[in-house]
Protein 1
Amino acid sequence: MDHASLAIFRTVAKEQGITRAAERLGRVPSNVTTRIQQLETEIGVALFQRDKKRMLLTQEGETFLEYADRILNLADEARQVVNPSAPCGTLRVGSMESTVASRLPVPLAAYNKAWPDVTIELSTAPTRQLIDALLGRRIDCALIAVPSGEWWLEPGTLDTHALFREQLVLLLPPGHPDIRHASDIKPKALAAFAPGCTYRMLAEEWLTGFGSIKEHFAVQEVGSYHAMFACTAAGSCISIMPRSVVDLMRHLGPVKEHPLMTVDTVLASRPGFETPAFSEFRKTLEAVSDIKK
């Protein structure tokens, strides 16, 4: 088993097919097929379920992919650390949806212009899932929101650099009366991302006083801030999101805003992780940070 075989396996897994993987890798399909067969023979289990159109991972293949990702990512990190001549290689960045929408377009463009030899692989997920991906070495760094003192991130687990201060805003349907407490809210449904989202957690705590959200509000899980905004503007739900995201969507319709609290977005990485590509990425973000050091 070598790194080339692992890289081929990972590409086939992501493309779900030999032909597309071969095109991405610059190899002929027969070579890719042979390498996958050799890898399965060496491991002793089938890694893919094959049909006429797609190749899907078996349960064993899913497990093996996690290890292949870790091995390949660690090898790439090692190459960059021992030969830090200039930023190069791949930087795997995870981020909350809100940060991608409102904070990253300008610095990502600047970074790509300054360091064209670095390939940024950008993925989005809620904070809890991003932390799991960081600790599992599936990504190199992440832009997350972790309130101070939060029990699920012990001190020293990650290195963090505060970059952006977000004001969380409770959005109410247009024409809703002013509120002072959660009990003043008329719609009894909260539009939010899936569990693991820090903003959802803070919303539930504020709405219930640290009680059970199900006893007070129905939760309508949605996949985007646009969906949250639309549900709120239609009058069926309330939602909570950063003001920087609200500012991007005011054209979608009227809503009523009620300020709640501020939460910092931090750049998180594993302790000691310091490749040239990541170092320059951090500097690029610090240049547009709105938090004074």
Protein 2
Amino acid sequence: MYQAPRGTSDILPKEQPYWRYVEQKVVNICQLYGYERIDAPAFEDTGLFTRSVGEETDIVEKQMYTFEDRSGSQLTLRPEGTAPVCRAYLEHGLHNLPQPVKLYYMASIFRYERPQAGRYRQHYQFGYEAIGDDDPALDAEVIDMAWQFFESLNLHHLSLQLNSIGCKQCRPVYLAALKNYYANYTNDLCSDCKTRLKRNPLRLLDCKKSSCQEVALSAPKSIDYLCPECNRHFEALQSHLRLLKLPFVINHYLVRGLDYYTRTVFEIQPESGGAQSTLGGGGRYDDLIEELGGKPTPAIGFAAGIERIILNLKKQGVPVPPLPSPQVFIAYVGDEARDEATKLASGLRKKGIGVIEALGSKSLKAQLRQANTLGARHTVIIGEQEITSGTVILRDMTTSKQKTVPLNELEELLR
């Protein structure tokens, strides 16, 4: 028996109401804030990700699905959603449009990592990017949009975490201070953090190991090293968030896991879950477009994993609406009636009425049992007598009451 590869899952029909519920909320919130949909390829040139995400990140070093195609090109299945959007922004000249350009996506993401609840090797993500403006008000709008999205899902007891990690002018001083501090605790660090200390010190604050978290408690804070411009940006952002009445808290250990972030970083977490159960997050990446070959272009974005959102919907017991399904089942008795049932089903479908038609040679009792299992609201029954009289039997499946109605009145009655 073949099985789905480890770290992947089938989304079965019973799960689909959750997915459609979340996707519809995504579309609604993006329309409210003026974002347009973009769909990028599932794989890109490997260099796009090594250059944008960072060669010394866990994603590039351990998690990417990279392969060589028949022409010898190095390609990688998309491990995150922002870089492909930025590549499309440059490739298609979107910088010529009024800025900021606002785009959103829903896409599959591929990362080779240890599967766990809400985290898969192929998972699905929705995200949005606002490219072309550095106004702190835009940061606040992006954060507000994320918060309103989760509220529209009826998810509660969430925490908005906020930090600023500075820019390429002020961050080197902060990184030097981090290295100096952690140099005194090398024996207390996990093996990954010992490597990060040399190659990517900002990620030291992001380690989930308890021993490393303990060391991080007294580590230097990035906001104490911000240059005047970054400090003004961060203060203005907080002022905008207060204006919007968003209940944020400053988290000095929040850095996010990708190298392209600058200044604003934020996450939305369940109050009881902590960073490992983060629902979504994002931040500024003012240098990324330039890194990819464009002109200096400020930008900010957000992304959230759909599986983890659904996990929290279930945990909080949020009811989701069922998907629409055919409300009419057509049953028949006899071969001649079967042909009439087929014609009737086709005619009703052409009129926009959803129909499930009985198949095979089941008894009428078995057909009614099937209609009940499928949740049909009404069953139309056709037999030889009904063919002769130009009628059908219309049965209400919730009350089991039925009546004979003229065939030419059936469509109106069903509507």
Protein 3
Amino acid sequence: MRRARLIINPIPWARRAKDKLAEITNLLDEVGIRVDLTFTKLTESMTQSVGQAAREGYDLVIVGGGDGTVSEVAAGLVWTGIPLGILPCGTFNNIAHSLGLSLDLLEATRNIARGNALDIDVGVANGVYFFEAVGVGLDASLFPIGEEIKEGHYEKVLQGAVRFLRHRKAQITLHLDQNKVDLQTPMVVVANGPYYGASFTVAPQASLTDGRLEVVVFECSKVEVARHFALSARNRAHEEPCISMYQAQQVSILPQLPLPAHADGKPIGNAPVTCRIIPRSLRVIVP
């Protein structure tokens, strides 16, 4: 028997998967994977729970939740060599989409049972791991409001619209490995995978295994930014002429004035931000 720690975020799980737990654990037991279940609590770090699982000698960690839950659990497994299995049950499931995982939980469980592992790249921004993308500027100022809207606080829509309309372009210097780029832009995104936020295809060519970060520069008007994100939602690719793409292993974002920054939607303070890629440092189970 192999031992697996199953870490579940109870909020999305209760919404989308509450009747699947027994079937999932039975499927895993049939292939020799004994599951020990943990429900996350708001007062404890999932990354710490993963560290405990590593110390206790588990062969596998499985996470059930959305992108935030998956990111926090994955952060505790970087460089451990312990495979991560994902049961996607969040709102957008960008990480699952980037890995080609099924959103059907029973098929995702069968995938974990097959155990095909792949070592993927992990980004780090000012010491914080990220698996989707880092943003500086406009998107970082809107992400917290977007999270509240996602939780049903629709009165925040007007606040988000006002913040969007008031935002101005900023003077930013980018250091891309050995190259330097000066620009005026409302936002810069550094992507590890193709998708982030509300299933926006921010970097269609991004790969989790190529050892590089995709740097997306928006030298755009607000209308062009809004159009791009409207047309790139739901995992659709769309290109605007005002958007430039770069690749680098290390990226420094240096604004003349302080700008907010996020990593996978979580605020990480104000830029400057330095991002780098850590190749093949997380083992995940893929189709």
